[in-house]
Write a structure and sequence with these properties.
The protein is an alpha+beta fold. It has nine helices and 20 strands. The chain starts with a helix and ends in an 8-residue tail after the last helix.
């Protein structure tokens, strides 16, 4: 009897080891991380988590906790427009502290932080039109401001081929806090899909330029920088063509009509048809961040996170799939996708979340205390 048991164990244990190895292999194979090797991984201080439309297993709080363990400041938002901190440009239009910018720079925020001559100010959104993509801010404090408001060009139509200058704060995380000038031409007196509210300009535009002034050779504003064509979408639509300096600005007459309708008193106080210099316009151009941004978080790089999953009950709750997609807030580059790509009978929800965030911490260079 003893010999037969020993013979049985000689077959039993190798079989158990083989089964365990196969199950372990299945577990490992179901977990996956895909990283964008071309995207820069920065030192991050904040993360915006997009709340999933459906969260039947209440997974979101666990995801929030995992990012907090990395030492990140976590905010949960239900739409991209509600993410604070997006950056653009604006410009001073009155000596009372009124600033004009694009509505999309502010998103759903009703407050903003601006830097005028690299001095920080807080402002309130007093008027906004999403359809026109125009917004007006009002500084809370005017102390130390000596800049001259810009002057609008009025009753003079844009001409194809005339000079178009713009000043703004493009790619400020890379280029810094100094205003940048670019020069081009008015390429067309209509905009995207022949929009009558826009003009097309060839002056170079980068992320962060939105809301900046477009002015002529005499220093009079005749547009507001609004958008550029998305190279990736155009490449896909045309089968390989990449747009070059195809950019759009809101016409100044559209902007002036908006101001006149929303605040006639403000409209009457605007400067018109008065020339200026590039230096003076640069002094009245501001960097705009949506929401109130403290000075210590001004340069903090941010992540945007999307959570997707499908769960079901077997012997315990498991995921059919689980994915955390992470983007860089400023560049909008996708950094990575991590999670469980297919059903694994050996992995509970807790195991999948644990292993997914182990991959994320390693890729982002963060331990549980947020140290790089």
């Amino acid at each position: 009897m003893r010999i037969s048991l020993e013979k049985a164990s000689a077959f039993k244990y190798p079989l158990l080891l083989l089964i365990s190895a196969l199950l372990l292999q299945a577990c490992v194979a179901s977990m996956q991380l895909v990283q964008n090797k071309n995207a820069e991984v920065k030192k991050y201080g904040e993360v915006y988590i997009m709340a999933p439309q459906q969260d039947p297993r209440n997974i979101l709080p666990q995801v929030v906790d995992e990012f907090k363990k990395m030492g990140l400041v976590v905010s949960v938002v239900d739409s991209p427009e509600k993410m604070p901190g997006s950056q653009g440009t604006g410009f001073l239009i009155t000596d009372k502290g009124h600033i004009l910018t694009c509505a999309h720079v502010l998103g759903e925020q009703n407050q903003a932080t601006v830097w005028l001559s690299q001095t920080r100010f807080e402002a309130d959104v007093i008027s906004k039109n999403k359809d026109l993509d125009v917004a007006i801010l009002k500084l809370r404090n005017l102390s130390g401001i000596h800049a001259t408001p810009v002057s609008f060009r009025e009753n003079k139509a844009c001409r194809m081929g005339e000079d178009a200058f713009t000043i703004g704060f493009p790619l400020s995380k890379v280029l810094g806090d100094s205003a940048r000038l670019s020069k081009g031409l008015v390429s067309a007196t209509a905009g995207l899909k022949d929009s009558p509210n826009q003009i097309q300009i060839s002056a170079e535009i980068q992320p962060g330029n939105s809301g900046g002034p477009v002015f002529d050779g005499q220093g009079m504003v005749f547009g507001v920088v609004q958008q550029t064509l998305n190279p990736t979408k155009i490449y896909q639509q045309t089968g390989g063509a990449l747009p070059q300096n195809v950019n759009f600005a809101i016409r100044s007459d559209v902007v002036l009509e908006f101001i006149k309708t929303s605040d006639p008193g403000l409209y009457d106080s605007l400067r018109r048809n008065q020339g200026s210099t590039i230096e003076k316009i640069a002094d009245s151009t501001v960097k705009v961040r949506s929401s109130i941004i403290s000075e210590d978080l001004k340069e903090s790089s941010k992540l945007v996170v999307r959570l997707q999953y499908q769960s079901f009950w077997d012997m315990w709750f498991r995921f059919r799939y689980f994915a955390i997609t992470i983007y860089d807030f400023d560049s909008q580059d996708q950094l990575l996708i991590a999670g469980q790509r297919r059903y694994n009978p050996m992995s509970s929800e807790e195991i999948v979340i644990r292993d997914t965030f182990a991959q994320i911490r390693k890729t982002l260079g963060l331990d549980n205390h947020g140290s790089p």
